[in-house]
Amino acid sequence: DPQERSFQERIDQGQKIEPKEWMPEGYRKTLIRQISQHAHSEIVGQLPEGNWITRAPTLERKAILLAKVQDEAGHGLYLYCAAETLGISRDEMYEQLHSGKAKYSSIFNYPTLTWADIGAIGWLVDGAAIMNQVPLQRCSYGPYSRAMIRICKEESFHQRQGFDILMKMVKGTPAQKAMVQDALNRWWWPSLMMFGPSDDASVHSAQSMAWKIKQNSNDELRQKFVDQTVPQAEYLGLTIPDPKLEWNEEKGGYDFGEPDWNEFFEVLAGNGPCNAERLGARRKAWADGAWFRDGLTAYAEKQAARRAGNEAAAE
Amino acid sequence: DPQERSFQERIDQGQKIEPKEWMPEGYRKTLIRQISQHAHSEIVGQLPEGNWITRAPTLERKAILLAKVQDEAGHGLYLYCAAETLGISRDEMYEQLHSGKAKYSSIFNYPTLTWADIGAIGWLVDGAAIMNQVPLQRCSYGPYSRAMIRICKEESFHQRQGFDILMKMVKGTPAQKAMVQDALNRWWWPSLMMFGPSDDASVHSAQSMAWKIKQNSNDELRQKFVDQTVPQAEYLGLTIPDPKLEWNEEKGGYDFGEPDWNEFFEVLAGNGPCNAERLGARRKAWADGAWFRDGLTAYAEKQAARRAGNEAAAE
Amino acid sequence: MAEATVADAAVDPTALFEFLLRMGDNTLILGHRLSEWCGHAPALEEDIALANTALDLIGQTQLWLGLAGAVEGKGRSADDLAFLRDACEFRNLLLNERPNGDFGKTLMRQFLFDAWHHLFLNALRLSSDTRIAEIAGKASKEVSYHLERSRDLVIRLGDGTAESHGRMQGALDDLWPYTGEMFMNEASDAVLAAAGVAPEPAGLKTEWDALVGETLSEATLKEPAEGYMQKGGKRGIHTEHLGYILADMQFLQRAYPGATW
Amino acid sequence: MAEATVADAAVDPTALFEFLLRMGDNTLILGHRLSEWCGHAPALEEDIALANTALDLIGQTQLWLGLAGAVEGKGRSADDLAFLRDACEFRNLLLNERPNGDFGKTLMRQFLFDAWHHLFLNALRLSSDTRIAEIAGKASKEVSYHLERSRDLVIRLGDGTAESHGRMQGALDDLWPYTGEMFMNEASDAVLAAAGVAPEPAGLKTEWDALVGETLSEATLKEPAEGYMQKGGKRGIHTEHLGYILADMQFLQRAYPGATW
After folding, report:
1. Which of B64, C126, D127, D233 would be D133's cystine partner, CB 3.0–4.6 Å?
2. Which GO terms describe its biological process (chains C, D) (predicted)?
3. Which chains touch A (3 or more CB pairs under 8 A)?
4. For B278, nearest residue in chain C (alpha carbons)
């Protein structure tokens, strides 16, 4: 197919694909799936962090967390807009989220149990997300690439804020330090799982790579994340909960244990600690808000009719 | 009317009237109103105290408060039963409560804002209630009289427990003592209002007195309550929030200021701090529980049908 | 903190402290209520807007309570005042601690408060106490945007569907008895007014009535009769809801005394 | 507190302490949840019954946590343990901290727990630790009544109307993944079992299955497939709900440290 060949050539040359241009159906579908999943993650991701806004320990921390959650909702908005350029509506995407057809990042199915979890999410979860997202700034699809550039800037700010929460706590009382270690113990493995299982064998991945939707293998990114994070944990005086973790001079990186992929697939299948609650909260928000959205629509229609009426009268 | 005359004679002789005996319509109506209002008060009264069960400061205090609230629900039950002997169903009484036709004691439209309020309710509100209820043990209507005998015994136990909460607190930290004084400041006047406005002029009261449904005037009981309570407040080291309060040697009792009857009538009219919430909570409990009550009824009917079927089959 | 100006010398510091608590507690408690919505709003734009409003209000809280602590002169920080006072020491309006209810009720509460907040802050920009004037100047920019937004939504939902109209009317009727407190003068208000620090609350009623009345009329909502008004918040006599708000809000500071975060 | 018996000498006090926390935290947290219903139940008889059950559970908490404090030997009272630990130190089953939901869900949670509680307490009456046997003896009388009641209501509502059936089935399906934790052995359980202090949790599964299965069948409810089971409570990894429970429950002790009540 010459159309597909020329499409691939443009990608190979590093050109951006823009909304109204021709693209293979698979490219469109893959992007819609990936961008909407990313958008859903931002939205669902408000819930675990929102859980601690009302209990933030100082006014300053409360303000920072509010600003962060607001940013995340904003990221959701950019991403839904980017996906809409591919010919799907935001309501359709919500529908897929609510029906369970579309996924969101499994990490948000874990609970936030202490204030240290808010720090750990910033440090580890945003850290892993950035690792995934930095290459996406160079994604072949223009609107997605531009959204990611904006998002990455804010995410790295969030990551620093998360690290700062933990810095303050490890310098605090023994109870605070224990809280941080406990948070690391609970978030470490789920963070490693954020990169997905090893993708050596995935055809899916190969195609995404060729299309420059995906640029690195899951294992590469995971390795990079571990190598970046271990020294930070040491700086905080924390112990990574992995007895197999060890510096490997030869490869210039850390060796580390295998995450419990059984747990990963259980969470993916809906059996995580908070799946039912997260999805339930989103469904309820949507259902409870129907009257609100309908009210605004009705008002807009009335206003349009009034304007039309006025114009007709003026003629 | 000879029937009415002989009825009055029996009452004058101190005889008890029992459910199936003849009684004047007015007597029946007055009793239904009074007993159901009293029952509703016990039920609604669960709410302000229930507000602190989850926050009781020790396990012991939590257990005592649970037991107390349970007793109150039990009192509600006796009283509804007593009222039912007069030919009204419990559901009809609920309906009157929920529609606002029947009243409950206005005192429960005030909020419980601190743990000291739980003490103050026991000491002052139960204290005032007992003052009202003790004479009712000699009420001419048998079932009501017997219910009151049982209730008064438990109430005076509750009153001692309330006083004990406050005793402990006034011996505690300055903050605890301030909490107690604050509670007294808020509950003093509403407690005095529990006896109702001065009833010099009320024809209603005169008839109730003749029927031995009511045995003392509101002002008599209020005076008795003040005379009993002031020394207790002194014992606790508290100041009664009434600048006019003064011992009157001549009458052998205290002189005291006039409650703000304007406030009383506002609360009665539905404008107290918690009227909407109290009645709303009861209505919601009833509405939300409809499926539960219907389920039990349906099961009972099925069981009856099964028994009938089995009997028929056995014949 | 800011330095003392000529005006404060004349003003009873207790009256000033109480006044600043009222300002800061209003923003703190309403900010708390709004943040309870996080992730549960009926549209993504609303999640963003609520978080933004809450953020503004918490920022204002830092300023008002910071100044309150400075005026008190006992070394209490804004955080100490926010996290280590019990309910009876809070001075916010009862309106601001009302439960969120549905989104319409949250918006109506916001509008009724914003309208007052906007007018009051505007007046405070002329305060003889430059510290107050400065905070009011910063806050009033934020709040005029809050008002623009809540007013607009009240109109659109009031004049939307029958259901949205009914919900907004219900919210208005429920919340109305909590609006009177905004205009009740406390003893200390005369002192502050005489010193030019802050206007007497009662003086704002006419303007508020006009602003609210006009909005409700455009929203096709029926303004309730004046009626009985609830009060107590400004004197520390709150509703049963505030205790639960504080139990959550203050948990960490209470459970880990002296820790820094 | 009770004196040491022969049995304790042989048992790791940490294992025993953990075990006693599990017992006491289960009753404390479930008692808390039940008391949230106060005044809101669908019938007056239910208000009375729930308050009564909560009262029993709080009484049992005093005994279990009192003994836990004695075993720990650091001078902590039952109240210290109830009111001054943070969530990660709590050892209750996740099931018991689940939100109340509607009354059917509250009843189903109660039944699933009562069935286990009843069987476990019965076994504990034979504990080699006489202090435990004594508490179990007292508690099991109360709990067999709880079970009788919750079992009866589950049957009547399951086999009631279509709506009550649907609600009970929904409650069962929602809560089922939280039942597996009751039968998961922790490392310390083998130690306790070897010393005859307490049976290993896994050993009660068959009896519980039979009791629950028979009840559900009589209730015309469909027992869910075994499926994935949630866990964590026994190790202090809870749901997001526990923090809010504790914020309320512990408020006074946290806000007024050292005060006596």
Report:
1. D127
2. phenylacetate catabolic process
3. C, D
4. C240
- Which of A53, A110, A113, A284 is the mutation pick for testing D, counting most D CBs within 10 A? A113
Closest residue in A to D177 (Cα–Cα): A271
β-bridge partners, B17 = B141
Q: Which long-range contacts (CB under 8 A, 24 or more apart) does B204-213 make?
A: B207/B26, B207/B30, B208/B30, B210/B8, B210/B11, B211/B8, B211/B11, B211/B27, B211/B30, B211/B140, B212/B11, B212/B138, B212/B139, B212/B140, B213/B27, B213/B30, B213/B31, B213/B34, B213/B139, B213/B140, B213/B141
Q: Do residue C38 and residue A61 have CB atoms under 8 angstroms apart?
A: no
- What is the spatial distance between Cα D108 and Cα D116, in angstroms, rounded to a whole number? 13
C212 contacts C115 by C-beta, under 8 angstroms: yes
- Read off the pLDDT of each residue in A164-191 and give the average, rounded to a whole number: 98
Whole-angstrom distance, CA of residue C244 vs CA of residue C29? 12
Q: Are strands A253-255 and A246-248 parallel, antiparallel or unpaired?
A: antiparallel
Residue of B nearest to C237 (CA): B113
Q: What is the pLDDT of residue A187?
A: 98
Long-range contacts of B148-153 (CB under 8 A, 24+ apart): B150/B78, B151/B75, B151/B78, B151/B79
Instruction: Tell me the per-residue pLDDT of C82-104, one tens digit each, with 9 for 90 and over.
Output: 999 999 999 999 999 999 999 99
Number of CB pairs, chain C paired with chain D, less than 8 A apart: 21
pTM (predicted TM-score): 0.96
CB atoms B113 and C238 under 8 Å: yes
**Distance separating alpha carbons of residues B187 and B13, to the nearest angstrom:** 40
The per-residue pLDDT string of chain D (261 residues; one tens digit each, 9 = 90 and over) reads: 344 444 445 688 999 999 999 999 999 999 999 999 999 999 999 999 999 999 999 999 999 999 999 999 999 999 999 999 999 999 999 999 999 999 999 999 999 999 999 999 999 999 999 999 999 999 999 999 999 999 999 999 999 999 999 999 999 999 999 999 999 998 889 999 999 999 999 999 999 999 999 999 999 999 999 899 999 999 999 999 999 999 999 999 999 999 999
Given its phi and psi angles, is residue B97 left (phi above 0), alpha (psi -120 to 50 degrees) or beta? alpha
Q: Name the 3-class secondary structure at A164.
A: helix
Which of C32, C104, C164 faces A54 most closely, judged by CB atoms? Answer: C32
Beta bridge partners of D127: none
CA distances to A71, A270, B166, B232, C90 from A142, rounded to whole Å, are: 21, 33, 70, 80, 52
Chain A residues near residue C58 by CB distance under 8 angstroms = 59, 62-63, 66
pLDDT of residue D3: 44
Tokens 């429920």 -> residue: C174
Please indicate if any CB of chain A lies within 8 Å of the CB of C77.
no
CB neighbours of B135 closer than 8 A, spacing ≥ 6? Answer: B214, B215, B216
Pairwise CB contact (< 8 Å): A273 & D230: yes
C244 has a chain D CB within 8 A of its CB: yes
* Count of Cβ atoms closer than 10 Å to residue B293 Cβ: 16
With CA atoms as reference, report the closest residue to A31 among A147, A128, A126: A147
Evaluate whether D16 touches D197 at the Cβ level (below 8 Å): yes
Residues of A in contact with C35 (CB under 8 A): 50, 53-54, 62, 66
Residue C248 CA to residue D250 CA, distance in Å, equals 11
**3-class secondary-structure state, position B249:** coil
Asked if C255's CB is within 8 angstroms of D255's CB, the reply is no
Residue in A112, A266, A276 closest to D240 by CB: A112
Both tokens of A246, joined, read: 């060890």
pLDDT digits (tens, 9 = 90+) for B277-304: 999 999 999 999 999 999 999 999 999 9
